[in-house]
Amino acid sequence: MKALRVGLCGVGNVGGAVLKLLKESSSLLERQGGFSFELVQVGARKGRSVVPYDDIDVTTDLMEVANNPEVDIFIELIGGTEFADELVQTAIRNGKQIVTANKALLAIKGDEIFQLAKQNNVQIGFEASVAGGTPVIKALREGLVANKVEWFAGILNGTSNYILTEMSVEKTEFSLALSKAQKLGLAEADPTMDIDGTDAAQKASILAALAFHVPFNFEAVNYEGIDKVDVEDLKYAEELGYNIKHIAFGRLLDNSVFVSAYPTLVPHEVILSQVGKQMNALEIYAHGIGSTVYYGPGAGPEPTASAVVADLVDLAKGGWQAEPARHSDNILRSESSIKTPRYFRLMVKNEPGVIAKISAVFANQDISIEALIQHEIKVNNGEQTDEVPVVILSGSVSDQIVKELLNQLNDMEEVADCLKQFRIHAKIN
Q1: 208 has pLDDT over 60
Q2: Domain boundaries, given as residue ranges, for the chain
Q3: Looking at 203, 349, 357, 427, which residue is catalytic?
Q4: Which fold, 141-297+327-333?
Q5: β-strand 57-59 against 36-43: which pairing, if any?
Q6: Is residue 420 annotated as a catalytic residue, yes or no?
Q7: Span 274-328, pLDDT tens digits
Q8: pLDDT at 428 over 60
Q9: Of the candidate ranges 50-64, 278-292, 336-350, the one whose mean pLDDT is the lowest
Q10: pLDDT band, residue 429 (cuts 50/70/90)
């Protein structure tokens, strides 16, 4: 059996797990995949100290791996965009097949990279870029190829989901839940891209390119993070029959594609609402099959390494096309005009007639009120305030109208503060 020669750049947690899987599971891979893989060279900035195998050639010059004529398949696991892009494009020009877990690289540089790959008859595996070891890329590229995807909704960032789960179940404040995630290795020392929504938005842009056959365009994705969610919001959502999750959503409406990632109230009866801790889940609705759901670990060295090696086997079989299928008239657009139901939390003066005045503002904007709850008077340092929290669930409304509504509410003497507004998950079909 001829071994396929592999070069790898990036020996962090994921790269180390890939090395271990390839070295320690070689007989299993031969038996189940029908191929053997030889690790020809590893590029690691820290050198041999991070590679626990003496029989592997290690270099601190990562570009050397991309240029190595002995390498058939190039694995990029360094992260980032600029240097990773340079490495990957160099490897492509040298005719090497590519495997990457780099969602930022694909979200920002995807079209350029795939076009170059097509020109050089090179294939690219990127299963590990979204949802870790859960095969959602394969589902879109292969399993649902006979279907027109109408929408997808998913929990794509395990760190955010863990934090929201801790806040909901344990009633832990955001900062403490984040600290716990970091101690457990579920969040980076700098968790910005996880908690501000960037990570999920990048993954959503990749899914949109596959699902709706539009260009990779991270800049067209509207997103917010979870840092504005607090325990009170989670408590009120629970009272009303919802959990708050960070949901990446993509939809196709009349050849227009809209992609977003926001904290969202999800009804308890919806599967995504019950996805806890650091797990990922993706629901895809397609015209032929209806709804399918994919659930599993979305992050961590082992799940990601599993997806990387699965791509190696697919590439060995010649299973990937050079680029995602396009051939559509679909256009990626901003989501600001899309209407969704909303959650509002206000602080209002505890006076007669206030609720009626607030309801009138909603009515003037032609927004229906589906539910309204006035809670107990707040107590600060043992003293009662003259303000009460009011939670409103509205009918469907666009971002533009929400801004106008909030401006009008903030101008009311009776409204002390418009604290929060979140979207509510509503399926299109």
Answers
A1: yes
A2: 3-125, 141-297+327-333, 340-424
A3: 203
A4: Dihydrodipicolinate Reductase; domain 2 (3.30.360)
A5: parallel
A6: no
A7: 999 999 999 999 999 999 999 999 878 999 999 999 999 888 887 655 566 665 7
A8: no
A9: 336-350
A10: very low
Superfamily of domain 340-424: ACT domain (3.30.70.260)
Q: Which residues of 8-29 are buried (b: 16+ CB within 10 A; e: fewer)?
A: bbbbeebbbbbbebbeebeeeb
Nearest to 401 by CA among 359, 349, 363, 355: 363
- As its CATH architecture, domain 3-125 has 3-Layer(aba) Sandwich (3.40)
Residue pair 404/360 in contact (Cβ under 8 Å)? The answer is: no
Check residue 224 and give its pLDDT.
96
Whether 138 and 164 have beta carbons less than 8 Å apart is answered as no
